[in-house]
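Lab notebook, design round three. We kept the backbone fixed and only want residue identities now. Task for the bench partner: fill in a sequence for the structure below.
Input structure tokens:
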């Protein structure tokens, strides 16, 4: 199971340690629920992308976990930022990134967002025909046109983004019209979805991209100087899911890009990649404190923790599956009776893990759930007026706070 945890995870004197810091010590110092990020794992994933695509511009899908310190670390490793709101844009700027390293997305960009992108000189991905003119009037100088190839990626329907009927991008005819309206645009963008654990759809999207680029050239004479292939590489969060390495994914996609563009006799464009989850998901572990343990009807025994769907909505939203260990008793043998890990919220659907074998849990144990570095804290809420967790970064035996815990007073301060 340690294969699902950050790279530095070890068992020390029977306890789980990440980045040289024991989970029990982290829980004691910072409280729970707590998101623990391993700096070494983040840097290793960033370097894997740079090695797999040394000539590409790699930008981090900030929505996976918008955090200034994480953005700074990634910037040190040569990674920019892919942002989709004014808030994410300001986080990227706070991390020291300039507009030349920022890509701006969004299916409904405000005038304020376009103006901010223009001021920075960021690359803007146009998502509708009317946005072409609005971006130009806002002073945006660099654009790509996002199109929807009609590909059904093998992932949850809520995180597919390139199928027919998607709210993102332009169908082929409108994308060609966007190029006619703005022939100065740099290129094309395609992103087919998130949590991809096989290559089929990604390779198909590159083939479609080349075919479409040839069609645009035939109708307008325009050829893309840049193509943005999006992101989407998945990360397994349970042992029975497949695993696809960064090197294998990026290498195959870039190989297909070269083959497909050569086949269409198109010049090879500059490439932009937008990884998010695959940079930070495995780096993150959530620590919870066990509360009540109770047996209910049938063979189900609920292990209730002090968080739940407010800090990790993915099981409820997407049917995401996770595993867990007792961080303070990591070397003990699990009993055969399975447990269900439940959150503390007023929803029957607030179940983080439907079935897991653990040593018999007791109140006060520290439960560690790996693979939670992406789309957990970034999608968190204050449901039931439960404050959002803190986040810490661990490295070389030390931990430091990178996002403080929200308090009830913070939430009360919002009341008029």
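Proposed sequence:
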């Amino acid at each position: 199971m340690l294969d699902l945890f950050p790279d530095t995870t070890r068992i020390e004197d029977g306890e789980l340690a990440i980045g040289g810091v024991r989970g029990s010590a982290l829980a004691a110092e910072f409280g729970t629920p707590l998101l623990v990020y391993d700096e070494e794992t983040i840097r290793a994933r960033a370097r894997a992308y740079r090695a797999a695509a040394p000539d590409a511009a790699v930008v981090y899908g900030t929505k996976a976990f918008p955090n200034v310190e994480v953005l700074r670390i990634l910037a040190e490793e040569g990674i920019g930022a892919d942002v989709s709101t004014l808030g994410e844009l300001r986080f990227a700027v706070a991390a020291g990134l300039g507009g030349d390293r920022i890509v701006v997305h969004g299916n409904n960009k405000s005038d304020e967002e376009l103006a901010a992108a223009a001021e920075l000189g960021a690359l803007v991905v146009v998502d509708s025909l009317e946005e072409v003119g609005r971006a130009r009037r806002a002073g945006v100088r660099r654009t790509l046109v996002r199109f929807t190839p009609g590909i059904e990626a093998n992932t949850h329907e809520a995180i597919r983004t390139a199928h027919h009927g998607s709210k993102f991008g332009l169908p082929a005819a409108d994308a060609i019209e966007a190029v006619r309206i703005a022939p100065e645009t740099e290129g094309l963008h395609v992103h087919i979805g998130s949590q991809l654990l096989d290559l089929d759809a990604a390779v198909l999207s590159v083939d479609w991209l080349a075919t479409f680029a040839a069609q645009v050239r035939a109708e307008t004479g325009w050829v893309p100087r840049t193509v943005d292939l999006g992101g989407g590489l998945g990360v397994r969060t349970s042992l029975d899911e497949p695993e696809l390495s960064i090197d294998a994914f990026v290498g195959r996609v870039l190989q297909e890009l070269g083959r497909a563009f050569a086949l269409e006799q198109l010049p090879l464009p500059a490439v932009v990649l937008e990884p998010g989850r695959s940079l930070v998901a495995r780096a993150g572990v959530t620590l919870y404190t066990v509360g009540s343990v109770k047996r209910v009807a049938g063979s189900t025994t609920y292990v209730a923790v002090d968080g739940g769907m407010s800090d990790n909505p993915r099981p409820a939203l997407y049917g995401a599956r996770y595993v867990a260990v007792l961080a303070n008793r990591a070397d003990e043998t699990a009993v055969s009776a399975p447990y269900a890990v439940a959150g503390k919220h007023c929803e029957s659907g607030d179940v983080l893990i439907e079935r897991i074998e653990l040593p018999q849990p007791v109140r006060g144990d520290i439960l560690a759930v790996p693979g939670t570095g992406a789309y957990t804290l970034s999608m968190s809420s204050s449901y039931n007026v439960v404050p959002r967790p803190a986040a810490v970064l661990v490295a070389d035996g030390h931990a430091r706070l990178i996002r403080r815990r929200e308090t009830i007073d913070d939430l009360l301060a919002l009341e008029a």
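Keep this in mind before ordering anything: The chain has two domains: 2-31+283-412, 39-279.
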